Amino acid sequence: MAESPVLLSCSGVDISIGEVTITRRLELCIEAGQCWCLLGRNGTGKTTLLQTLAGLRPPAAGRIALNGTALEQLPRRQVAQQLGILFQDFEDSFPASVLETVLQGRHPHLHNWQWESAEDYRIARAALAELGLDSLEQRNVQTLSGGERQRVGIATLLAQQTPLLLLDEPTSHLDLQHQLDILQTLVAQCRARNSAVLMVLHDINLAARFADHVVLLMGNGEHRLGRSEDILQTDQLEQLYGHPLMQIDTATGPAWLPR
Amino acid sequence: MRKIHPASLLVLLSTAALLGAWFSLTTGPLSVSLHDILRQPDSLQAQVFWELRFPRSATAFMTGALLGIAGALMQVLLRNPLADPYILGISGGASTGALLAIMAGAGTLVLQTSAFAGALLSILLVFSLAHGRGNWDTTRLLLTGVVLAAGWGAIISLLLAISPGTRVQGMLFWLMGDLGFAQSPVPGGIVLLAVTLLAFMLSAALNLLAGGELRAASLGVDTGRLRVAIYLLASLATATAVTQAGNIGFIGLIAPHMLRLAGARDHRVLIPGVVLLGGTLLLFADGLSRLVIAPRQLPVGVLTALLGVPLFLYLLYRSRGIRHG
Question: Which residues make Cβ contacts (< 8 Å) with residue B215, sequence separation at least 6?
Answer without folding.
Answer: A87, A90, A91, B208
